[in-house]
Amino acid sequence: MTRNIDRDLTRFKDIVRGKVRQNLRRYINHSEMIGRKGKNTVSIPVPNIEIPHFRHGPKGSGGVGQGEGDVGQSVGPGGQQQGDGSGQAGSDPGSGHYREVEITLEELADLLAQELQLPRIEPRGKDSLVSVKDRYTTIAQTGPESLRHFRRTYRKALKRSIASNDYTPENPVIVPTRDDCQYRSWKSITMPESNAALIYMMDVSGSMLDEQKEIVRTEAFWIDTWLRRNYDGVEVRYIIHDAVAKEVDEDTFYHTRESGGTRISSAYKVCKEVIQREFPVSDWNIYCFQFSDGDNWGEDNSACLRMLSEDILPHCNLYCYGQVESPYGSGEFIRELRRLVDQNDNLILSDIPSRDAIYESIRKFLGKGK
Amino acid sequence: MSISIHRPLPANLSEIKEEMASRAREYGLDFFETNFEFVDYEELSMFAAYTGFPVRYPHWRFGAQYDELMKGYTYGLQKIYEMVINTNPCHAYLLDTNSTGDQKLVIAHVYGHCDFFKNNAWFTPTNRKMLDQMANHAARINRYIDRYGHEAVEEFIDACLSLEDLIDPHLPHVRRRMDQDSAKGSLSPDETSQSDEDAERRSGRFPSKGYMDAFINPPDVLRKQAQDKKREQEQVEANRSFPGHPERDVLLFILEHAPLKQWQHDILSIVRDEAYYFVPQAQTKIMNEGWASYWHSTIMTRYGLTDAEIIDYADHHSGTMAMSPNRLNPYKIGIELYRDIEERWNKGQHGLEWERCDDLREKEHWNTRTEEGRAKIFEVRRIHNDVTFIDEFLTPEFCRKHKLFTFAYNESSDDYEIASREFYKIKTQLLDSLTNHGRPIIRVVDGNYRNRGELYLLHQYQGMPLKQDYARDTLVNLCKLWGRPVHIESLVDDKLSVLSFDGTNHEIRSKPAA
Question: Are A342 and A357 in contact (CB under 8 A)?
Answer without folding.
Answer: no
